[in-house]
Design brief:
The structure holds 2 protein chains of 2 kinds. Chain A is built from no helices and 11 strands. By secondary structure, chain A is mostly beta strands. In chain A, strands 2, 4, 5, 9, 10 and 11 form a 6-stranded mixed beta sheet that branches. In chain A, strands 1-3-8-7-6 form a 5-stranded antiparallel beta sheet, with no helix packed on it. In chain A, strand 6 and strand 7 form a beta hairpin. Chain A starts with a strand and ends with a strand. The termini of chain B are far apart. The chains are: A mainly beta, B mainly beta. At the A-B interface, strand 5 of A face strand 5, strand 9 and strand 10 of B.
Chain lengths: 113, 111
């Protein structure tokens, strides 16, 4: 079945550092891949969407791209701020129909000033 | 203003007690979800509802049931709560498959 794997459980950075988070996916169809962000005390919210049509998504200074050859997609930001401290989830639109997303286990990003 | 609300925000129950978690949305979304979030496990789908009285099991439905009698309202029920159901529960709604709008969560502790 469809799956996403997010191996980085925790990333610790300083302000102005470069952020890179990676996910791998497995699906039988053309993937639509998403990044959600969860700020402390809140529910997750959609950050970016990447499809095979656009290969890239950009929002709020974050950029997401995917690599069909390695079935991976990643999220990056050139210069993080303390306000970027959050949990980042990758997600895959399932190929089985319905309206369920398949979420990764999340990466906690902590940015110190 | 697009909003998903959850009540209560915090709840402490004893093992064996019944639990009712309530969720509301003001966007007229057909699809609603219940998830639980545990450290290291991410978001696990409990139930999905496609509209009133049209509910489907998610990945971990055991020990839970749901009720949706109005489009804007979706309830999660734990009959005889267990300690391993201690978690943070999130409700979400969506118009399409990509963007789910999440509520602020309910932190449930079962003693």
């Amino acid at each position: 079945g469809d799956s996403v794997t997010q191996k980085q459980g925790q990333v610790t950075l300083s302000e102005d550092d470069f952020l890179f988070i990676n996910c791998t996916y497995s699906t039988t169809t053309y993937p639509t891949l998403l990044w959600y962000v969860q700020y402390p005390g809140q529910g997750p919210q959609l950050l970016l969407k990447v499809t095979t049509a656009n290969n890239k998504g950009i929002s709020r200074g974050f950029e997401a791209t995917y690599d069909k050859g390695t079935t991976s997609f990643h999220l990056q930001k050139a210069s993080v701020q303390e306000s970027d401290s959050a949990v980042y989830f990758c997600a895959l639109v399932g190929s089985q129909g319905g309206r369920a997303l398949i979420f990764g286990t999340g990466t906690t990003v902590s940015v110190s000033p | 203003d697009m909003k998903v609300t959850q009540m209560p925000r915090y709840l402490i129950k004893r093992m064996g007690e019944n639990v009712l978690l309530e969720c509301g949305q003001d966007m007229s979304h057909e699809t609603m979800y219940w998830y639980r979030q545990d450290p290291g496990l991410g978001l696990q789908l409990i139930y999905i509802s496609y509209d009133v009285d049209s509910n489907s099991e998610g990945d971990i439905p055991k020990g839970y049931r749901v009720s949706r009698k109005k489009r804007e309202h979706f309830s999660l029920i734990l009959d005889s709560a267990k300690t391993n159901q201690t978690s943070v529960y999130f409700c979400a709604s969506s118009r399409d498959i990509y963007e789910q709008y999440f509520g602020p969560g309910t932190r449930l502790t079962v003693l």
